[in-house]
Amino acid sequence: MPMSSFAEVALLLVLAAGIGLFGIFLRQPLIVSFIAVGLIAGPSALDVVHSDAQIDLLSELGIAVLLFLVGIKLDVKLVRSLGAVSVMTGMGQVLFTAFFGYLIGLALGLDHVTSLYVAVALTFSSTIIIVKLLSDKREIDALHGQIALGFLIVQDLFVVLAMIVLSAIGIGAGGDAGHGGGSILSVLLSGVALLVAVILFVRYAANPLTERLARAPELLVIFAIALAAMFAAVGDLVGLGKEVGGLMAGVALASTAYRETIAARLAPLRDFLLLFFFIALGATLDLSLLGAHVTGAVVFSLFVLIGNPLIVLAIMGAMGYRKRTGFLAGLTVAQISEFSLIFVAMGVTLGHVTDDALGLVTMVGLVTIAASTYMITFSHKLYALFEPFLGIFERKGTPREPTDFVATDDNDDKVIVFGLGRFGTAIGLRLQKRGIRVLGVDFNPLAVRRWRELGMKARFGDATDPEFVAELPFQGTRWIVSTVPIHPTGLSHEDTRRTLIQLSRTAGFSGRIAAASHSAGDTEVLFGAGADMVLEPFQDAADRAVELLCGAAEEDRTDIPEIATEGRVVT
Protein backbone atom coordinates (compact mmCIF):
# COMPACT_ATOMS: atom_id res chain seq x y z
CA MET A 1 0.00 0.00 0.00
CA PRO A 2 1.57 3.29 -1.12
CA MET A 3 2.20 5.96 1.52
CA SER A 4 0.40 9.27 1.47
CA SER A 5 2.32 12.51 0.93
CA PHE A 6 1.90 13.33 4.62
CA ALA A 7 3.35 9.96 5.63
CA GLU A 8 6.31 10.46 3.27
CA VAL A 9 7.08 13.89 4.72
CA ALA A 10 6.73 12.51 8.25
CA LEU A 11 9.16 9.70 7.42
CA LEU A 12 11.64 12.18 5.93
CA LEU A 13 11.47 14.32 9.07
CA VAL A 14 12.11 11.29 11.27
CA LEU A 15 15.05 10.25 9.06
CA ALA A 16 16.41 13.81 9.11
CA ALA A 17 16.20 14.03 12.89
CA GLY A 18 17.84 10.64 13.38
CA ILE A 19 20.61 11.01 10.82
CA GLY A 20 21.16 14.64 11.83
CA LEU A 21 21.59 13.58 15.46
CA PHE A 22 24.03 10.87 14.41
CA GLY A 23 25.91 13.44 12.32
CA ILE A 24 26.16 15.86 15.24
CA PHE A 25 27.49 13.01 17.39
CA LEU A 26 30.22 12.54 14.76
CA ARG A 27 30.67 16.36 14.56
CA GLN A 28 29.60 16.40 10.90
CA PRO A 29 27.95 19.40 9.17
CA LEU A 30 24.16 19.13 9.03
CA ILE A 31 24.11 19.76 5.28
CA VAL A 32 26.01 16.51 4.69
CA SER A 33 23.54 14.67 6.96
CA PHE A 34 20.52 16.08 5.15
CA ILE A 35 21.91 15.20 1.70
CA ALA A 36 22.52 11.70 3.07
CA VAL A 37 18.83 11.58 4.06
CA GLY A 38 17.91 12.30 0.44
CA LEU A 39 20.27 9.60 -0.84
CA ILE A 40 18.89 7.02 1.61
CA ALA A 41 15.26 7.92 0.91
CA GLY A 42 15.82 8.28 -2.85
CA PRO A 43 15.68 5.77 -5.70
CA SER A 44 19.19 4.48 -5.03
CA ALA A 45 18.28 3.08 -1.59
CA LEU A 46 14.87 2.93 0.16
CA ASP A 47 12.99 4.61 -2.71
CA VAL A 48 10.33 6.11 -0.44
CA VAL A 49 10.30 9.63 -1.94
CA HIS A 50 7.49 9.84 -4.46
CA SER A 51 5.79 13.13 -3.50
CA ASP A 52 8.23 15.08 -5.65
CA ALA A 53 5.87 18.00 -6.27
CA GLN A 54 5.20 18.62 -2.57
CA ILE A 55 8.88 18.32 -1.58
CA ASP A 56 9.98 20.55 -4.46
CA LEU A 57 7.42 23.16 -3.40
CA LEU A 58 8.77 23.26 0.16
CA SER A 59 12.32 23.29 -1.21
CA GLU A 60 11.66 26.23 -3.51
CA LEU A 61 9.92 28.19 -0.76
CA GLY A 62 12.97 27.60 1.44
CA ILE A 63 15.24 28.96 -1.30
CA ALA A 64 13.08 32.09 -1.58
CA VAL A 65 13.14 32.68 2.20
CA LEU A 66 16.90 32.05 2.42
CA LEU A 67 17.78 34.60 -0.26
CA PHE A 68 15.17 37.00 1.13
CA LEU A 69 16.97 36.96 4.49
CA VAL A 70 20.28 37.63 2.72
CA GLY A 71 18.78 40.55 0.81
CA ILE A 72 17.17 42.10 3.86
CA LYS A 73 20.60 42.51 5.47
CA LEU A 74 22.40 43.91 2.44
CA ASP A 75 24.00 47.31 2.87
CA VAL A 76 23.62 49.25 -0.40
CA LYS A 77 26.79 51.29 0.21
CA LEU A 78 28.78 48.12 0.80
CA VAL A 79 27.36 46.52 -2.35
CA ARG A 80 28.55 49.53 -4.35
CA SER A 81 32.05 49.35 -2.88
CA LEU A 82 32.33 45.60 -3.53
CA GLY A 83 30.79 45.63 -7.01
CA ALA A 84 34.09 45.71 -8.89
CA VAL A 85 35.72 42.82 -7.04
CA SER A 86 32.52 40.77 -7.28
CA VAL A 87 32.29 41.18 -11.06
CA MET A 88 36.01 40.66 -11.66
CA THR A 89 36.23 37.61 -9.41
CA GLY A 90 32.98 36.09 -10.64
CA MET A 91 33.82 36.46 -14.32
CA GLY A 92 37.44 35.44 -13.78
CA GLN A 93 36.43 32.24 -12.01
CA VAL A 94 33.83 31.38 -14.68
CA LEU A 95 36.28 31.92 -17.56
CA PHE A 96 39.13 30.08 -15.80
CA THR A 97 36.99 27.07 -14.90
CA ALA A 98 35.35 26.85 -18.32
CA PHE A 99 38.63 27.12 -20.27
CA PHE A 100 40.74 24.72 -18.25
CA GLY A 101 37.80 22.39 -17.59
CA TYR A 102 37.37 22.06 -21.35
CA LEU A 103 41.08 21.23 -21.80
CA ILE A 104 40.95 18.67 -18.97
CA GLY A 105 37.92 17.04 -20.58
CA LEU A 106 39.76 16.67 -23.88
CA ALA A 107 42.83 15.29 -22.08
CA LEU A 108 40.62 12.66 -20.41
CA GLY A 109 39.36 11.51 -23.81
CA LEU A 110 35.96 13.21 -23.85
CA ASP A 111 34.70 14.57 -27.16
CA HIS A 112 34.51 18.33 -27.77
CA VAL A 113 30.78 18.72 -27.03
CA THR A 114 30.88 16.66 -23.84
CA SER A 115 34.00 18.51 -22.67
CA LEU A 116 32.24 21.83 -23.27
CA TYR A 117 29.12 20.76 -21.37
CA VAL A 118 31.13 19.46 -18.41
CA ALA A 119 33.35 22.57 -18.36
CA VAL A 120 30.37 24.93 -18.29
CA ALA A 121 28.66 22.81 -15.63
CA LEU A 122 31.76 23.10 -13.42
CA THR A 123 31.54 26.92 -13.43
CA PHE A 124 28.31 26.91 -11.38
CA SER A 125 28.63 27.12 -7.58
CA SER A 126 25.70 26.50 -5.26
CA THR A 127 24.46 29.82 -3.89
CA ILE A 128 22.03 28.01 -1.60
CA ILE A 129 24.62 25.78 0.07
CA ILE A 130 27.21 28.54 0.44
CA VAL A 131 24.80 31.10 1.86
CA LYS A 132 23.47 28.51 4.29
CA LEU A 133 26.99 27.61 5.47
CA LEU A 134 28.08 31.24 5.84
CA SER A 135 24.84 32.09 7.64
CA ASP A 136 25.35 29.21 10.09
CA LYS A 137 28.89 30.44 10.76
CA ARG A 138 27.63 34.05 11.11
CA GLU A 139 30.04 35.09 8.33
CA ILE A 140 27.57 36.29 5.71
CA ASP A 141 28.18 39.85 7.01
CA ALA A 142 31.97 39.47 7.00
CA LEU A 143 33.94 41.07 4.16
CA HIS A 144 34.74 37.70 2.55
CA GLY A 145 31.09 36.68 2.92
CA GLN A 146 29.85 39.84 1.20
CA ILE A 147 32.38 39.45 -1.63
CA ALA A 148 31.44 35.78 -2.03
CA LEU A 149 27.76 36.72 -2.22
CA GLY A 150 28.59 39.27 -4.90
CA PHE A 151 30.41 36.89 -7.21
CA LEU A 152 27.82 34.18 -6.59
CA ILE A 153 25.21 36.59 -7.95
CA VAL A 154 27.44 37.10 -11.00
CA GLN A 155 27.58 33.31 -11.38
CA ASP A 156 23.79 33.09 -11.09
CA LEU A 157 23.43 35.56 -13.95
CA PHE A 158 25.82 33.41 -15.99
CA VAL A 159 23.68 30.37 -15.13
CA VAL A 160 20.61 32.23 -16.42
CA LEU A 161 22.34 33.10 -19.70
CA ALA A 162 23.68 29.55 -20.14
CA MET A 163 20.21 28.07 -19.60
CA ILE A 164 18.66 30.55 -22.03
CA VAL A 165 21.25 29.76 -24.69
CA LEU A 166 20.71 26.02 -24.23
CA SER A 167 16.93 26.45 -24.39
CA ALA A 168 17.34 28.53 -27.55
CA ILE A 169 19.42 25.75 -29.11
CA GLY A 170 16.67 23.28 -28.32
CA ILE A 171 14.00 25.56 -29.75
CA GLY A 172 16.19 26.28 -32.76
CA ALA A 173 16.45 22.58 -33.44
CA GLY A 174 12.67 22.62 -33.63
CA GLY A 175 12.66 25.40 -36.20
CA ASP A 176 12.42 28.65 -34.20
CA ALA A 177 16.01 29.84 -34.37
CA GLY A 178 15.31 33.48 -33.66
CA HIS A 179 13.94 32.92 -30.20
CA GLY A 180 17.30 32.92 -28.36
CA GLY A 181 18.14 36.60 -28.83
CA GLY A 182 14.60 37.58 -27.89
CA SER A 183 14.81 35.49 -24.73
CA ILE A 184 18.04 37.16 -23.60
CA LEU A 185 16.66 40.63 -24.30
CA SER A 186 13.45 39.72 -22.48
CA VAL A 187 15.36 38.61 -19.39
CA LEU A 188 17.46 41.78 -19.35
CA LEU A 189 14.39 44.00 -19.67
CA SER A 190 12.60 42.00 -16.98
CA GLY A 191 15.58 42.43 -14.65
CA VAL A 192 15.56 46.19 -15.16
CA ALA A 193 11.79 46.30 -14.59
CA LEU A 194 12.11 44.29 -11.37
CA LEU A 195 14.87 46.59 -10.12
CA VAL A 196 12.78 49.68 -10.88
CA ALA A 197 9.82 48.11 -9.02
CA VAL A 198 12.01 47.52 -5.97
CA ILE A 199 13.33 51.11 -6.02
CA LEU A 200 9.78 52.52 -6.22
CA PHE A 201 8.60 50.21 -3.44
CA VAL A 202 11.50 51.21 -1.17
CA ARG A 203 10.95 54.92 -1.82
CA TYR A 204 7.18 55.15 -1.46
CA ALA A 205 5.70 52.07 0.20
CA ALA A 206 8.15 50.05 2.31
CA ASN A 207 8.27 52.14 5.49
CA PRO A 208 4.59 53.15 5.82
CA LEU A 209 3.42 49.64 4.90
CA THR A 210 5.68 47.83 7.38
CA GLU A 211 4.80 50.32 10.14
CA ARG A 212 1.13 49.52 9.70
CA LEU A 213 1.74 45.76 9.43
CA ALA A 214 3.96 45.80 12.53
CA ARG A 215 0.88 46.45 14.67
CA ALA A 216 0.16 42.75 14.11
CA PRO A 217 3.57 41.00 14.18
CA GLU A 218 2.16 37.77 12.76
CA LEU A 219 0.85 39.67 9.75
CA LEU A 220 4.24 41.31 9.24
CA VAL A 221 5.87 37.87 9.03
CA ILE A 222 3.20 36.58 6.63
CA PHE A 223 3.71 39.66 4.47
CA ALA A 224 7.47 39.08 4.39
CA ILE A 225 7.01 35.45 3.31
CA ALA A 226 4.44 36.50 0.70
CA LEU A 227 6.80 39.16 -0.69
CA ALA A 228 9.68 36.66 -0.88
CA ALA A 229 7.50 34.06 -2.62
CA MET A 230 6.00 36.60 -5.02
CA PHE A 231 9.35 38.05 -6.10
CA ALA A 232 10.83 34.56 -6.41
CA ALA A 233 7.89 33.49 -8.59
CA VAL A 234 8.22 36.59 -10.77
CA GLY A 235 11.97 36.10 -11.06
CA ASP A 236 11.48 32.49 -12.09
CA LEU A 237 8.72 33.44 -14.54
CA VAL A 238 10.84 36.01 -16.39
CA GLY A 239 13.96 33.81 -16.41
CA LEU A 240 16.01 35.47 -13.66
CA GLY A 241 15.56 32.57 -11.25
CA LYS A 242 14.04 32.25 -7.80
CA GLU A 243 17.33 33.17 -6.14
CA VAL A 244 17.54 36.62 -7.73
CA GLY A 245 13.83 37.22 -7.10
CA GLY A 246 14.06 36.27 -3.42
CA LEU A 247 17.15 38.44 -2.99
CA MET A 248 15.39 41.45 -4.51
CA ALA A 249 12.45 40.95 -2.15
CA GLY A 250 14.82 41.17 0.80
CA VAL A 251 16.44 44.31 -0.59
CA ALA A 252 12.95 45.84 -0.84
CA LEU A 253 12.61 45.65 2.97
CA ALA A 254 16.26 46.21 3.88
CA SER A 255 15.74 49.92 4.60
CA THR A 256 12.81 49.46 6.99
CA ALA A 257 13.02 49.70 10.77
CA TYR A 258 11.63 46.18 11.17
CA ARG A 259 14.17 44.21 9.14
CA GLU A 260 15.85 42.72 12.22
CA THR A 261 12.49 41.60 13.62
CA ILE A 262 11.54 39.99 10.31
CA ALA A 263 14.92 38.27 9.99
CA ALA A 264 14.77 36.87 13.52
CA ARG A 265 11.28 35.45 13.07
CA LEU A 266 11.97 33.89 9.66
CA ALA A 267 15.29 32.22 10.50
CA PRO A 268 13.74 29.03 12.03
CA LEU A 269 11.31 28.73 9.09
CA ARG A 270 14.23 29.08 6.68
CA ASP A 271 16.13 26.23 8.33
CA PHE A 272 13.05 23.97 8.31
CA LEU A 273 12.24 24.59 4.64
CA LEU A 274 15.86 24.22 3.50
CA LEU A 275 15.85 20.74 4.96
CA PHE A 276 13.64 19.74 2.02
CA PHE A 277 16.00 21.39 -0.46
CA PHE A 278 18.90 19.23 0.66
CA ILE A 279 16.69 16.14 0.83
CA ALA A 280 15.43 16.81 -2.70
CA LEU A 281 19.03 17.31 -3.88
CA GLY A 282 20.10 13.97 -2.41
CA ALA A 283 17.04 12.19 -3.76
CA THR A 284 17.73 13.33 -7.33
CA LEU A 285 21.23 11.85 -7.36
CA ASP A 286 21.19 8.52 -9.18
CA LEU A 287 24.04 6.47 -7.72
CA SER A 288 23.77 3.89 -10.50
CA LEU A 289 25.38 6.38 -12.90
CA LEU A 290 28.47 6.99 -10.78
CA GLY A 291 30.75 4.11 -11.71
CA ALA A 292 31.51 4.89 -15.36
CA HIS A 293 34.05 7.72 -14.96
CA VAL A 294 35.71 7.40 -11.56
CA THR A 295 39.08 8.67 -12.80
CA GLY A 296 37.52 11.63 -14.58
CA ALA A 297 35.40 12.46 -11.54
CA VAL A 298 38.46 12.47 -9.29
CA VAL A 299 40.40 14.74 -11.66
CA PHE A 300 37.53 17.19 -12.14
CA SER A 301 36.77 17.20 -8.40
CA LEU A 302 40.37 18.09 -7.54
CA PHE A 303 40.27 20.79 -10.21
CA VAL A 304 37.15 22.36 -8.65
CA LEU A 305 38.31 21.94 -5.05
CA ILE A 306 41.78 23.40 -5.65
CA GLY A 307 41.66 25.38 -8.91
CA ASN A 308 38.57 27.50 -8.21
CA PRO A 309 39.76 28.78 -4.79
CA LEU A 310 43.22 29.52 -6.23
CA ILE A 311 41.87 31.67 -9.08
CA VAL A 312 39.67 33.63 -6.67
CA LEU A 313 42.63 34.06 -4.32
CA ALA A 314 44.83 35.27 -7.20
CA ILE A 315 42.27 37.76 -8.54
CA MET A 316 41.48 39.22 -5.12
CA GLY A 317 45.18 39.42 -4.26
CA ALA A 318 45.87 41.30 -7.51
CA MET A 319 43.05 43.73 -6.63
CA GLY A 320 44.63 44.50 -3.26
CA TYR A 321 42.82 42.24 -0.79
CA ARG A 322 44.58 40.35 1.97
CA LYS A 323 45.40 36.70 1.45
CA ARG A 324 43.10 35.73 4.33
CA THR A 325 40.10 37.46 2.75
CA GLY A 326 40.88 35.90 -0.64
CA PHE A 327 41.36 32.44 0.83
CA LEU A 328 38.09 32.47 2.81
CA ALA A 329 36.16 33.85 -0.18
CA GLY A 330 37.81 31.35 -2.54
CA LEU A 331 36.69 28.35 -0.53
CA THR A 332 33.08 29.23 -1.30
CA VAL A 333 33.47 28.25 -4.98
CA ALA A 334 35.05 24.87 -4.28
CA GLN A 335 31.96 22.94 -5.35
CA ILE A 336 29.49 22.69 -8.20
CA SER A 337 25.80 23.45 -8.07
CA GLU A 338 22.53 21.62 -8.38
CA PHE A 339 22.15 23.65 -11.60
CA SER A 340 25.20 21.82 -12.97
CA LEU A 341 23.16 18.61 -12.97
CA ILE A 342 20.17 20.36 -14.52
CA PHE A 343 22.37 21.87 -17.24
CA VAL A 344 23.88 18.53 -18.25
CA ALA A 345 20.46 16.84 -18.02
CA MET A 346 19.17 19.40 -20.55
CA GLY A 347 22.07 18.37 -22.79
CA VAL A 348 21.04 14.72 -22.45
CA THR A 349 17.46 15.61 -23.38
CA LEU A 350 18.68 17.49 -26.47
CA GLY A 351 20.84 14.52 -27.46
CA HIS A 352 24.11 16.47 -27.21
CA VAL A 353 25.64 14.28 -24.47
CA THR A 354 25.00 10.82 -23.03
CA ASP A 355 23.99 9.60 -19.59
CA ASP A 356 27.67 8.96 -18.85
CA ALA A 357 28.30 12.72 -18.84
CA LEU A 358 25.46 13.18 -16.36
CA GLY A 359 26.92 10.44 -14.18
CA LEU A 360 30.34 12.11 -14.30
CA VAL A 361 28.97 15.51 -13.24
CA THR A 362 26.80 13.87 -10.57
CA MET A 363 29.82 12.22 -9.00
CA VAL A 364 31.78 15.48 -9.14
CA GLY A 365 28.82 17.16 -7.46
CA LEU A 366 28.72 14.63 -4.63
CA VAL A 367 32.45 14.86 -3.96
CA THR A 368 32.77 18.65 -4.19
CA ILE A 369 29.61 19.50 -2.23
CA ALA A 370 30.61 17.20 0.62
CA ALA A 371 34.28 18.25 0.62
CA SER A 372 33.62 21.99 0.30
CA THR A 373 31.12 21.82 3.16
CA TYR A 374 33.95 20.71 5.42
CA MET A 375 36.33 23.25 3.85
CA ILE A 376 34.00 26.16 4.57
CA THR A 377 33.04 24.85 8.00
CA PHE A 378 36.67 24.61 9.09
CA SER A 379 37.95 27.46 6.91
CA HIS A 380 39.88 29.22 9.68
CA LYS A 381 41.81 26.09 10.60
CA LEU A 382 42.59 25.47 6.93
CA TYR A 383 43.86 29.02 6.59
CA ALA A 384 46.15 28.58 9.59
CA LEU A 385 47.50 25.42 7.93
CA PHE A 386 48.17 26.95 4.50
CA GLU A 387 48.95 30.55 5.53
CA PRO A 388 52.76 30.15 5.22
CA PHE A 389 52.37 29.29 1.51
CA LEU A 390 49.93 32.08 0.54
CA GLY A 391 52.27 35.09 0.63
CA ILE A 392 52.52 35.23 -3.16
CA PHE A 393 48.80 36.05 -3.36
CA GLU A 394 49.02 39.24 -1.27
CA ARG A 395 50.18 42.64 -2.54
CA LYS A 396 52.30 44.76 -0.26
CA GLY A 397 50.08 46.98 1.87
CA THR A 398 46.84 45.27 0.76
CA PRO A 399 45.43 48.66 -0.34
CA ARG A 400 41.79 47.61 -0.75
CA GLU A 401 41.27 46.74 2.91
CA PRO A 402 43.24 49.31 4.94
CA THR A 403 41.84 52.20 2.88
CA ASP A 404 38.30 51.27 3.79
CA PHE A 405 38.53 49.68 7.17
CA VAL A 406 41.67 50.49 9.20
CA ALA A 407 41.92 53.45 11.53
CA THR A 408 45.27 55.13 12.33
CA ASP A 409 47.04 56.49 15.38
CA ASP A 410 45.84 53.77 17.72
CA ASN A 411 48.93 53.53 19.94
CA ASP A 412 47.27 55.16 22.95
CA ASP A 413 44.08 53.10 23.05
CA LYS A 414 43.39 51.70 26.52
CA VAL A 415 40.59 49.22 25.75
CA ILE A 416 40.02 47.09 22.64
CA VAL A 417 36.46 45.81 22.18
CA PHE A 418 35.83 42.84 19.87
CA GLY A 419 32.23 42.57 18.66
CA LEU A 420 30.45 45.82 17.86
CA GLY A 421 26.86 44.69 18.35
CA ARG A 422 24.49 46.18 20.91
CA PHE A 423 26.41 44.99 23.97
CA GLY A 424 29.83 45.92 22.60
CA THR A 425 28.61 49.32 21.44
CA ALA A 426 27.03 50.05 24.83
CA ILE A 427 30.31 49.20 26.56
CA GLY A 428 32.31 51.34 24.13
CA LEU A 429 30.08 54.40 24.53
CA ARG A 430 30.21 54.21 28.32
CA LEU A 431 33.99 53.80 28.36
CA GLN A 432 34.39 56.75 26.03
CA LYS A 433 32.07 58.83 28.21
CA ARG A 434 34.46 58.20 31.11
CA GLY A 435 37.40 59.46 29.07
CA ILE A 436 38.82 56.02 28.27
CA ARG A 437 40.12 55.58 24.74
CA VAL A 438 38.47 52.66 22.93
CA LEU A 439 39.26 50.77 19.72
CA GLY A 440 36.45 48.63 18.30
CA VAL A 441 37.03 45.55 16.15
CA ASP A 442 34.48 43.63 14.08
CA PHE A 443 34.44 41.52 10.92
CA ASN A 444 31.23 43.16 9.71
CA PRO A 445 32.09 46.29 7.67
CA LEU A 446 28.66 47.76 8.38
CA ALA A 447 29.20 47.42 12.16
CA VAL A 448 32.60 49.12 11.80
CA ARG A 449 31.03 51.96 9.85
CA ARG A 450 28.26 52.42 12.44
CA TRP A 451 30.82 52.47 15.26
CA ARG A 452 32.79 55.21 13.48
CA GLU A 453 29.64 57.22 12.95
CA LEU A 454 29.32 57.30 16.74
CA GLY A 455 32.72 59.05 16.90
CA MET A 456 34.86 56.07 17.95
CA LYS A 457 37.85 54.44 16.27
CA ALA A 458 37.36 51.01 14.74
CA ARG A 459 39.15 48.40 12.67
CA PHE A 460 37.80 45.76 10.37
CA GLY A 461 39.20 42.38 11.34
CA ASP A 462 38.60 38.84 12.51
CA ALA A 463 39.33 37.80 16.12
CA THR A 464 40.49 34.39 14.88
CA ASP A 465 43.06 35.82 12.44
CA PRO A 466 46.55 35.42 14.02
CA GLU A 467 48.09 38.04 11.73
CA PHE A 468 45.43 40.62 12.47
CA VAL A 469 45.54 40.08 16.24
CA ALA A 470 49.34 40.31 16.23
CA GLU A 471 49.16 43.72 14.48
CA LEU A 472 46.84 45.30 17.06
CA PRO A 473 48.17 48.22 19.17
CA PHE A 474 48.67 46.32 22.42
CA GLN A 475 51.14 48.84 23.84
CA GLY A 476 49.32 50.81 26.53
CA THR A 477 46.16 48.71 26.17
CA ARG A 478 44.70 47.81 29.56
CA TRP A 479 41.82 45.53 28.56
CA ILE A 480 40.67 43.38 25.69
CA VAL A 481 36.90 42.85 25.85
CA SER A 482 35.18 40.21 23.71
CA THR A 483 31.43 40.56 23.20
CA VAL A 484 31.42 38.40 20.06
CA PRO A 485 28.25 36.24 20.18
CA ILE A 486 28.71 32.48 20.24
CA HIS A 487 26.19 30.24 18.45
CA PRO A 488 26.93 26.63 19.45
CA THR A 489 24.15 25.26 17.25
CA GLY A 490 25.87 26.42 14.06
CA LEU A 491 28.16 24.36 11.87
CA SER A 492 31.33 25.89 13.28
CA HIS A 493 32.41 24.64 16.69
CA GLU A 494 35.26 27.15 17.11
CA ASP A 495 34.90 29.36 20.20
CA THR A 496 36.02 32.80 19.06
CA ARG A 497 36.53 34.00 22.63
CA ARG A 498 38.96 31.24 23.56
CA THR A 499 40.80 31.66 20.26
CA LEU A 500 41.13 35.40 20.90
CA ILE A 501 42.52 34.79 24.40
CA GLN A 502 45.11 32.39 23.02
CA LEU A 503 46.13 34.61 20.08
CA SER A 504 46.36 37.74 22.23
CA ARG A 505 48.69 36.09 24.73
CA THR A 506 50.76 34.59 21.92
CA ALA A 507 51.10 38.06 20.36
CA GLY A 508 52.49 39.44 23.62
CA PHE A 509 49.46 41.14 25.16
CA SER A 510 50.14 41.52 28.90
CA GLY A 511 46.94 43.30 29.94
CA ARG A 512 43.68 41.79 31.12
CA ILE A 513 41.02 40.03 29.04
CA ALA A 514 37.27 40.05 29.58
CA ALA A 515 34.77 37.92 27.65
CA ALA A 516 30.98 37.76 27.57
CA SER A 517 29.19 34.58 28.64
CA HIS A 518 25.54 33.54 28.79
CA SER A 519 25.80 30.40 30.92
CA ALA A 520 27.53 29.24 34.09
CA GLY A 521 29.24 26.39 32.26
CA ASP A 522 30.55 28.83 29.67
CA THR A 523 31.89 31.04 32.43
CA GLU A 524 33.98 28.23 33.91
CA VAL A 525 35.36 27.35 30.47
CA LEU A 526 36.41 30.96 29.82
CA PHE A 527 38.14 31.29 33.18
CA GLY A 528 39.92 28.02 32.44
CA ALA A 529 41.00 29.40 29.03
CA GLY A 530 42.71 32.35 30.73
CA ALA A 531 40.07 35.10 30.90
CA ASP A 532 40.64 37.57 33.74
CA MET A 533 36.99 38.58 33.83
CA VAL A 534 33.78 37.06 32.53
CA LEU A 535 30.86 39.38 31.82
CA GLU A 536 27.40 37.86 32.16
CA PRO A 537 25.13 40.47 30.52
CA PHE A 538 21.82 39.15 31.86
CA GLN A 539 23.08 38.54 35.39
CA ASP A 540 24.94 41.85 35.51
CA ALA A 541 21.91 43.73 34.16
CA ALA A 542 19.73 42.09 36.84
CA ASP A 543 22.21 43.09 39.56
CA ARG A 544 22.28 46.65 38.28
CA ALA A 545 18.48 46.77 38.07
CA VAL A 546 18.24 45.68 41.71
CA GLU A 547 20.77 48.36 42.68
CA LEU A 548 18.69 51.01 40.95
CA LEU A 549 15.46 49.74 42.48
CA CYS A 550 17.08 49.83 45.93
CA GLY A 551 18.33 53.35 45.42
CA ALA A 552 21.98 52.84 44.47
CA ALA A 553 23.65 56.06 43.42
CA GLU A 554 24.70 56.38 39.77
CA GLU A 555 28.01 58.00 40.75
CA ASP A 556 29.03 54.86 42.66
CA ARG A 557 30.19 53.35 39.37
CA THR A 558 33.13 55.58 38.45
CA ASP A 559 35.44 53.14 36.68
CA ILE A 560 35.34 50.03 34.57
CA PRO A 561 35.11 46.70 36.41
CA GLU A 562 38.38 45.48 37.90
CA ILE A 563 37.50 42.60 40.28
CA ALA A 564 36.53 39.11 39.15
CA THR A 565 35.38 36.43 41.56
CA GLU A 566 35.02 32.72 40.99
CA GLY A 567 32.14 32.00 38.64
CA ARG A 568 31.31 35.53 37.46
CA VAL A 569 32.07 39.20 37.68
CA VAL A 570 31.35 41.55 40.52
CA THR A 571 30.32 44.91 39.12
Relevant terms:
571 residues; mainly alpha; Na+/H+ antiporter like fold; Rossmann fold; 2 domains; 6-stranded parallel β-sheet; 24 helices; globular; disordered C terminus
Could you walk me through the main structural features you see in this protein, from its secondary elements to its overall organization?
This protein is mostly helical and 571 residues long. The chain has 24 helices and six strands. It has a six-stranded parallel sheet with strand order 3-2-1-4-5-6, with helices on both faces. Helix 6 (127-136) packs parallel to helix 16 (355-377) and helix 7 (143-173) packs parallel to helix 15.
Say how many strands there are.
6
Kindly report the average pLDDT value: 78
Number of discrete helical segments: 24
Overall number of domains? 2
Share of residues in helices:
55-70%
Beta-strand percentage range? under 5%
CATH topology of the largest domain, by name, is Na+/H+ antiporter like fold
**Overall geometric form:** globular
Q: What would CATH call the class of the largest domain?
A: Mainly Alpha
The CATH architecture designation of the largest domain is: Up-down Bundle
In N-to-C order, the SSE pattern is HHHHHHHHHHHHHHHHHHEHEHEHEHEHEH
In short:
By secondary structure, the chain is mainly α.
SSE topology:
Blueprint lengths: L4 H21 L4 H12 L10 H20 L4 H32 L4 H11 L4 H10 L6 H31 L5 H26 L1 H8 L3 H22 L3 H12 L5 H26 L9 H25 L4 H8 L7 H13 L4 H23 L1 H8 L13 H6 L9 E4 L3 H12 L4 E5 L2 H9 L3 E4 L5 H5 L8 E4 L13 H11 L5 E5 L3 H10 L3 E3 L1 H13 L22
Parallel strand pairs: 1-2, 1-4, 2-3, 4-5, 5-6
